[in-house]
Amino acid sequence: QLRLVESGGGLVQPGGSLTLSCTVSGGSLDYFSIGWFRQAPGKEREGVSCISEGEVTKYADSVKGRFTISRDNAKHTVYLQMNNLKPEDTAVYYCAAVHITRFRLCVLWGTFDVSRPPNGGYDSWGQGTQVTVSS
User: Fold this and answer.
1) Kind plus residue range of the DSSP H or E element containing 22
2) What is the tens place of the pLDDT at every residue in 81-105?
């Protein structure tokens, strides 16, 4: 069973930057796509970005040009570099893993309800890390 742990959250002023990490254990990252999601208080969980096993990347329109996702399989880690942060980016950020045989997360990115993913859902979720953007 793949285990995911997020880190790197915190309090930052508007315009600031943070880098989140999603560290994976219990298996190889090689055949998994990883998605970053976030949930603000009172709102539904939404997709932020994904990276496929072949390093194809997708972003939500709200973060394009500000966030960058990357992966280092040797370090078992996926990163989310967040620049020019805005108060509306405040949320708990989660990473999730999807095996390539379950569904192609980045191919289908933006076409499915995050709460109702295809083919039985995500393989694993992290516990989340809080990001607060405030002056």
Assistant:
1) strand 18-25
2) 999 999 999 999 999 999 999 999 9
Residue 33 CA to residue 11 CA, distance in Å, equals: 28
Residue 47 CB: number of other CB atoms within 10 A? Answer: 21
Residue type for 58, please?
K
* Euclidean distance between CA atoms 13 and 90, whole angstroms: 11
Backbone angles phi, psi at 51, to 5 degrees: -140, 130
Distance CA 55, CA 37 (A): 17
Q: What tokens appear for 14 in the block?
A: 């508007």
Pairing mode of beta strands 46-51, 129-133: unpaired
Among candidate residues 57, 11, 65, the one with its CA nearest the CA of residue 36:
57
pLDDT on residue 99: 94
At residue 13, what are phi and psi to the nearest 5 degrees? -75, 155
> What is the rounded CA–CA span in Å between residue 29 and residue 72?
9
